[in-house]
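[Discussion] Sanity-checking designs against the backbone

I'm trying to build intuition for which residues belong where. Below is a structure token string of 350 positions. I'd appreciate it if someone posts a full sequence so I can compare it with mine line by line.
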């Protein structure tokens, strides 16, 4: 009697779902159709305790229709980070890419990504991180904004952090751009706090020093939907959840003493700049917040950073970005918020 040998999985796509019934099908279909229903592709749908719709039933139905490709995992609600980590824990692929349930992938681009990953596996050269482009899809005005790295990263070659160029402020490596080797995610000590939004910043920060080999594939894989009123990056929603950003900043802060722990000077600079932006976001949205304790909590965050690492504090607080987002007094607050609105219009990040 012959045994059925399962196909080794090249990549696992994790899809965190929380009350996602209205849009999760489009996400799943885009991956299946883009990869041609390939047996070396895996999709792990994580139902994060959905109770308001039929997300759980839909996840099970997808797994029943495609049992060799799709897994449905159910857990008590733990938030986006917990759902991502559950997908990582259940991944069978050599590589892992997260795709949020209201987003999708481009068929031609994801096919190119899959072929490149197969090529690396075939060579026995397991690149730690593959970077691809992503596209902001703005529903309110039907416009698109492509974020690419062709003038920052070497194209079509394996490289290290020592080979990267200078990233513009709107060009940072967000979760949407990243396909990690799954073992990197499991071995780097990545932890994302439960019931916390904006943990994708941790995902795009903590694993980086463990990525020794990198490849940039210049294709627009990820389509990032922006426009729902309840979306976490909506300005009003983000302001109401400023405490989540404080939490994320603390995790990033304590992950590394950047100037002591990071060997590559270019990666050190990138990570310090990115952390500075996170602290700036904390400053801006603390000023926008109606919470009576917001500015006291912001000061506590800065004090904690100064006590943890004075050099990181000086760079984040007294560099150009830190000074611009922490101007004192009523006039300073007005100038900071005006600068934020100008950046928001220019970059269209939410």
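Best answer:
Here's mine. Compare freely.
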């Amino acid at each position: 009697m012959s045994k059925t040998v399962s196909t080794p999985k090249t990549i696992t796509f994790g899809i965190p779902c929380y009350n996602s019934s209205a849009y999760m099908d489009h996400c799943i279909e885009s991956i299946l159709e883009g990869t041609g229903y390939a047996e070396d592709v895996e999709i792990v749908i994580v139902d994060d305790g959905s109770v308001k719709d039929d997300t759980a039933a839909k996840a099970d139905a997808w797994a029943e229709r495609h049992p060799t490709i799709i897994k449905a995992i159910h857990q008590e609600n733990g938030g986006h980070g917990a759902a991502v980590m559950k997908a990582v824990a259940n991944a069978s692929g050599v590589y892992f890419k997260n795709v949020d349930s209201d987003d999708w992938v481009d068929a031609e681009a994801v096919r190119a990504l899959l072929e490149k990953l197969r090529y690396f596996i075939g060579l026995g050269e397991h690149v730690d991180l593959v970077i691809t482009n992503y596209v902001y899809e703005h529903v309110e005005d039907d416009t698109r904004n492509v974020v690419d790295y062709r003038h920052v990263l070497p194209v079509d070659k394996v490289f290290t952090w020592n080979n990267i160029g200078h990233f513009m402020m709107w060009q940072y490596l967000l979760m949407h751009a990243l396909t990690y080797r799954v073992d990197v995610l499991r071995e780097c000590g990545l932890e994302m706090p439960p019931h916390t939004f904006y943990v994708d910043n941790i995902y795009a920060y903590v694993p980086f020093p463990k990525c020794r080999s990198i490849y940039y594939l210049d294709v627009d894989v990820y389509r990032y939907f922006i426009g729902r009123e309840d979306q976490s990056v909506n300005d009003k929603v983000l302001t109401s959840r400023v405490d989540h950003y404080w939490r994320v900043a603390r995790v990033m802060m304590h992950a590394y003493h950047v100037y002591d722990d990071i060997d590559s000077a270019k990666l050190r600079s990138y990570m310090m700049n990115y952390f500075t932006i996170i602290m700036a976001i904390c400053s801006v949205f603390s000023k926008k917040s109606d919470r009576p304790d917001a500015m006291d909590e912001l000061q506590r965050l800065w004090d904690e950073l100064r006590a943890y690492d004075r050099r990181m504090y000086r760079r984040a607080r007294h560099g150009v970005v830190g000074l611009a987002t922490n101007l004192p007094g009523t006039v300073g607050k007005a100038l900071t918020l005006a600068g934020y609105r100008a950046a928001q219009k220019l970059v269209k990040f939410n």
